[in-house]
Design brief:
Structural class: alpha/beta
Strand content: 5-15%
Strand order of the largest sheet: 2-1-3-10-4
Number of domains: 2
Order of helices and strands: HEHHEHEHEEEHEHEHEHEHHHHH
CATH superfamily of the largest domain: Periplasmic binding protein-like II
CATH class of the largest domain: Alpha Beta
Radius of gyration: 19 Å
CATH architecture of the largest domain: 3-Layer(aba) Sandwich
Distance between the termini: 19 Å
Helix content: 40-55%
Length: about 325
């Protein structure tokens, strides 16, 4: 998702006029700051940070004197402000937000993806057992999403178009309620003001454990393939000046993802050390096992095509590589 504060919006507006043209190359940084949000989507960054994998690969890439600092923030406005001001070097974006940022900052900040963080497991849940499919959603029902531009909202529009035909993508727009994942989880379980919620791990585990919520449809069924849930992005100014740092981040994430796959119990332990959760270690481990972690972006062109067709993106990239930096852009993706 991409939310712009007034300062960020002004920056983008000036950039669009060429007023913030950036130099092609700048001094390499000795401290690289990475901002992520909360949840297991960013588990690989957490694991790489906790196990000093960024430091390990920095030495291998000849920048052993460079420090990688990971911060956790609530919401994308803080990430956008940090990226535009230069206080942050790398920040977490949803797939739809990265597409929007790529298009809006072309010729100025030139934001692109550094690496994908995971493949999403986004699922629409309801507290009304009568709702078995998208077609059962009534006009008076309220549907919680994290933002009206978030992947959850785009998937809901995709589902509406799929169920009701062309021109019906916005069928549920007026029924959307913006809530953070923890608040939406509590509201759905307690039946407080919402009847549906597009959930993400580990909150899906909480809904399932409650016995009061029921799956309607998941994102893979809607989009017809796997798709990225979160990606790390940066400006071209930073990437061009710090290619070894970009390579280090990707290598650190790859090693972390291999560990997550081979030892999900350790990954769950590391996650619970940095984020509060009401889930048990076994439940966190189960949530992690249900996900796929890869640096290759998935489903970006499917999102881009839909968003362009429905006016949410004026122009789509011609190929997924257009929105990613090397070395990931030289690998496999979609």
């Amino acid at each position: 998702m991409i939310h712009l504060s007034r300062r960020s919006a002004l920056a983008l507006g000036v950039a669009g006029l060429g007023g913030l043209a950036l130099p092609a190359r700048a001094q390499a940084k000795k401290t690289v700051t990475i901002a992520i949000q909360f949840g297991t989507s960013h588990l690989a960054t957490t694991v790489a940070d906790k196990l000093s994998l960024f430091a390990k690969h920095a030495k291998e890439n000849g920048i052993g004197d460079t420090t990688f600092a990971v911060q956790r923030v609530s919401g994308s406005p803080a990430i956008n402000d940090g990226i535009f001001s230069g206080n942050l070097d790398v920040g977490a974006y949803g797939p739809t937000a990265l597409l929007a940022a790529w298009l809006k900052t072309r010729g100025s900040f030139d934001i692109k993806g550094v690496a994908a963080c995971n493949e999403a497991v986004l699922t629409l849940y309801t507290n009304d057992p009568a709702v078995k499919s998208i077609a059962d959603i009534k006009p008076e029902m309220r549907i919680a999403v994290t933002a009206t531009t978030a992947p959850q909202a785009i998937l809901l529009r995709m589902a509406a178009e799929k169920a009701y035909g062309p021109g019906q993508a916005g069928r549920f727009d007026k029924q959307m309620v913006v809530l953070p994942h923890p608040d939406a989880t509590a509201a759905l379980i307690s039946k407080a003001a919402i009847q549906l919620y597009f959930a993400a791990p580990p909150f899906i585990s909480t809904l399932e454990a409650s016995g009061k919520c029921f799956k309607v449809v998941d994102g893979n069924d809607i989009i017809g393939r796997s798709y990225s849930g979160a990606l790390l992005g940066a400006t071209s100014k930073f990437a061009n000046a710090n290619p070894a740092a970009i390579a280090t981040i990707v290598a650190g994430l790859r090693e972390a993802m291999a560990l997550i796959k081979s030892d999900p119990a350790q990954a769950a332990k590391l996650y619970m050390e940095v984020e509060k959760t009401a889930l048990s270690p076994a439940e966190v481990e189960a949530a992690i096992k249900a996900q796929t972690f890869t640096v290759e972006p998935q489903g970006m062109m499917a999102f881009a095509g839909f968003m362009q067709r429905n006016g949410e993106l004026k122009e789509a990239p011609s190929k997924w590589q257009d929105i990613m930096f090397p070395p990931v852009s030289q690998g496999q993706g979609s």
